[in-house]
Amino acid sequence: MKNKNFITALIVSVLVAFLGVQTAEAQIWKKLGKKSEDVITRKLEKKVEKDTGKAMDTLLGNDGGSSSSGTSNDGTSNGNSGEPNGGSNTEVAQTETATVTMYKKSDWVPGEDIILFDDFADDPVGDFPQLWNTKGSGELVTLSDNPKQKWLKMYNYTKYEPDLPKNLPKDFTVEFDVRAFNLKNNNTSQTAGFYVYLADGVKPLKLGQRYVYSYFSPYPNWVKAQNLKSIDHQGEGEMAVGRTERDIRQAFQKGMHVAISVKEKRYRMYVNGEKIFDAPRAINDSKNFGSIIFDSYGLKDDQAILLTNLRVAEGLPEPRTKLFKTGSYSTTAITFDVDSDKLKPEAYGILKEIAEAINSEQGKNILITGHTDSDGSDEHNMDLSNRRAASVKNALVNEFGVSEARLTTQGKGESDPVASNDTALNKAKNRRTEFKLL
What we know:
Layout: H1 2-60, E1 113-118, E2 132-134, E3 138-143, E4 146-154, E5 158-162, E6 171-181, E7 193-199, E8 210-216, E9 226-232, E10 237-244, H2 249-254, E11 256-263, E12 266-271, E13 274-279, E14 291-297, E15 304-314, H3 319-326, E16 328-331, H4 348-359, E17 366-370, H5 378-400, E18 407-411, H6 424-430, E19 433-437
Parallel strand pairs: 17-18
Antiparallel strand pairs: 1-15, 2-5, 3-4, 4-15, 5-14, 6-11, 6-15, 7-8, 7-14, 8-9, 9-10, 11-12, 12-13, 16-19, 17-19
Helix pairs in contact: 3-4, 4-5
């Protein structure tokens, strides 16, 4: 009987052990299967991302490679994968300092003292920027041909307004980079449009009783109109109406720099340095504007207008007066591509004025000093500031005929800030070029 019980117990133990092995084996296979599934999923996701990136490059006319320099104030334009850029890249882009593209026939000169600057460097990709307002939706994206630059993706029938720290003065400038995304001949409404308003600012996202706007058509086929209108409902009514058919369609697709100058009653608007509107009596200057509003319409769900590098400033540069009366002149109006020593084309106007000032005093030599913000390592910023100072010197010599023997350059990196580096605005103030008499 004992032997029988022993045999029975032994059989039961073997069965339990066998079943335990089966269960454990099943769990192992399940885990392996899940891991395999995850690996396959990740590979598929990467392939989709890669194929999507290629499709976007084709869509936007890119060659599939990412730009080494980027753009912006310290940045500008380009095509979209819409993917977050994984981590900040602090390596200095290698550029050819002798190669400078400028708006050589432009009389555009930006304001000297920055009121507002936003390149969205302080905001994460995928979020709506913290210093902006909207009643709709929007998000920050990067583009496959320039992953260092962030763009605000603006949707259809939606207004966007940056937070101004104060009302705009009577004389000011507004600059930004803008481009169309996924707007093609066969998929875009002929009514598609993009507006930039200067408004009274009484209520958020409202035009109010006084406003002036410029309109751009992003339709890439036959519509090439840009319109200007100024309205004063409390006074003179319609103060200015203008229309031009300057062809900026390709510029809008690839990315263009828009610049607006208001000087008392006068309103001027430029695209890539070319003056599009010049209305001498467009503004009722009895009251100051209080808001800048961007709007778009006629877009489909997979289309967008992208905007970045908003710079609002006041005060005209006075390089000759400051340099030769005080011994030094510092400016933030000389701008470069992001993390690069490549001068932005819109820097032409201020460089021309500086060159004229230097050439007016032939007996004096000048030290050019480059300064950066605190993004990146000390070594990185020192190298970048040295190369930016050299780029300014090269432009003054090669483009404007300043004697090379009169110019010396140095870089100070981030070591001599004029403001804390805690906001995009303050960082923009620190990215400057200084000229001193020797």
